[in-house]
């Protein structure tokens, strides 16, 4: 019994293999089967080559694969929407948009985060122009509708043997609607990437109120997790200030805090804080300060304030909604050295807070 079962499975396997051979065997020189095998052959040869030759062969394989997918999807009647009947080739074909997606990836590459994994595919522009796929991947999505429209228009403007033909008036109307709609979709996709780039370069925009905007929709959680760039600048200045003054002899600290020196010191600290992670909105943040000595003469107070001078959704909003302050105390403490006790500097700062401090008429004066 097992013998006949095995024999039956073997015969069925031969029948399946025979059917696959008949389907995949090219009936003529120019067919989708020939393109498929050219794709396989190109990638096998690319795996055996190196350097420029490998990239060249792989690029040719990509072209064969795109032509193969276009041929198969164009012939598939099921890949159509809004069909009038099952057999007729009516309705909107999906093949051009599938082929357009592959063509966009082939030209510009793609960079996607899929869960914990990152999918990076370099396009032909990476090899020809030396551009990283991270920089050009938005073009993949922006160009996709337009490339798909061009592919969808090919049957209307090309006849047999790639001869150019004149579309009929009805076909011209269809092409105008096709390209107009795809151009609109491309513009909306590009607008999305523009907004995303703005939010990267101008992160403080997230803390503004877009409740009346027709284009920007901010999730409630964004306001909770948002840390203003002004706060990060003040925190960076605190770190730099401690690096400059902590553990230094008190005589050096007092010299740095003299009227002729502390302005230069604070400007340098502000510059370093902004340069640690620079964004385009940094020039719109103006940092002011109030510097004063305490009665004891051995302690100093430093109040830092970051003011937003950029655009606001509501000009009538209170200024303290766009200002952040940080108070620091620079004091003398005892340090231990081989020669005995030696006074050194120590910086203590409070957490940043929202709100303005009074305008300093004596700003920069000790």
What does this entry show, briefly?
By secondary structure, the protein is of the alpha+beta class. The protein has helices spanning 2-24, 32-48, 51-75, 95-108, 124-129, 133-157, 169-201, 220-225, 229-245, 250-256, 259-275; strands at 80-81, 92-93, 110-114, 117-121, 285-293, 299-308, 323-337, 340-349, 353-354. A hairpin with a 5-residue loop joins β5 and β6.
Q: Structural class, judged by helices and strands?
A: alpha+beta
Number of helices: 11
Tell me about the biggest sheet? 5 strands, antiparallel
Radius of gyration: 34 Å
Helical content band? 40-55%
The helix/strand series, from N terminus to C terminus, equals: HHHEEHEEHHHHHHHEEEEE
Strand content: 15-25%
Total strands: 9
Q: Quote the average pLDDT.
A: 77
Describe this structure in words.
- With 366 residues, the protein is of the alpha+beta class.
- The protein has helices at 2-24, 32-48, 51-75, 95-108, 124-129, 133-157, 169-201, 220-225, 229-245, 250-256, 259-275; strands at residues 80-81, 92-93, 110-114, 117-121, 285-293, 299-308, 323-337, 340-349, 353-354.
- Strands 5, 6, 7, 8 and 9 form a five-stranded antiparallel β-sheet that branches. A two-stranded antiparallel ribbon has the order 1-2. A two-stranded antiparallel ribbon has the order 3-4.
- A hairpin with a 5-residue loop joins strand 5 and strand 6 (299-308).
- The longest helix has 33 residues, at 169-201.
- Residues 219-226 and 358-366 have low confidence and may be disordered.
């Amino acid at each position: 019994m097992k013998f006949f079962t095995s024999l039956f499975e073997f015969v069925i396997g031969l029948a399946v293999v025979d059917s696959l051979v008949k389907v995949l065997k090219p009936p003529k020189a120019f067919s989708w089967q020939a393109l498929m095998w050219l794709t396989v052959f190109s990638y096998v040869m690319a795996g055996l080559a190196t350097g420029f030759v490998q990239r060249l062969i792989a690029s040719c394989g990509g072209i064969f694969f795109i032509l193969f997918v276009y041929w198969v999807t164009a012939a598939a009647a099921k890949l159509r929407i809004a069909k009038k009947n099952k057999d007729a080739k009516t309705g909107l074909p999906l093949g051009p948009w599938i082929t357009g997606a592959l063509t966009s990836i082939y030209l510009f590459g793609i960079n996607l985060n899929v869960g914990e994994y990152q999918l990076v595919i370099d396009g032909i522009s990476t090899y020809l122009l030396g551009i990283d796929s991270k920089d050009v991947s938005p073009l993949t999505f922006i160009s996709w509708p337009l490339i798909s429209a061009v592919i969808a228009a090919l049957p209307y403007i090309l006849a047999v043997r790639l001869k150019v033909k004149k579309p009929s008036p009805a076909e011209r109307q269809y092409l105008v609607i096709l390209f107009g709609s795809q151009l609109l979709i491309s513009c909306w996709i590009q607008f999305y990437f523009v907004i995303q780039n703005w939010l990267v370069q101008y992160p403080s925009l997230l803390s503004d109120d877009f409740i009346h905007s027709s284009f920007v929709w901010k999730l409630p959680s964004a306001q909770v997790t948002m840390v203003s760039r002004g706060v990060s600048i003040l925190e960076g200045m605190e770190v730099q200030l401690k690096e400059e003054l902590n553990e230094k002899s008190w005589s050096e600290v007092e010299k740095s805090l003299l009227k002729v020196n502390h302005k230069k010191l604070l400007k340098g600290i502000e510059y370093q804080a902004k340069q640690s992670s620079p964004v385009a909105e940094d020039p719109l943040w103006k940092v002011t300060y109030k510097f004063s000595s305490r009665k004891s003469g051995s302690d100093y107070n430093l109040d830092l304030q970051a003011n937003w001078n950029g655009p606001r959704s509501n000009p009538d909003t209170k200024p303290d909604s766009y200002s952040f302050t940080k108070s620091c105390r620079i004091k003398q403490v005892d340090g231990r050295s081989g020669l005995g006790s030696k006074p050194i500097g120590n910086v203590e700062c409070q957490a940043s807070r929202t709100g303005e401090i009074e305008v300093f008429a004596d700003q920069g004066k000790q």
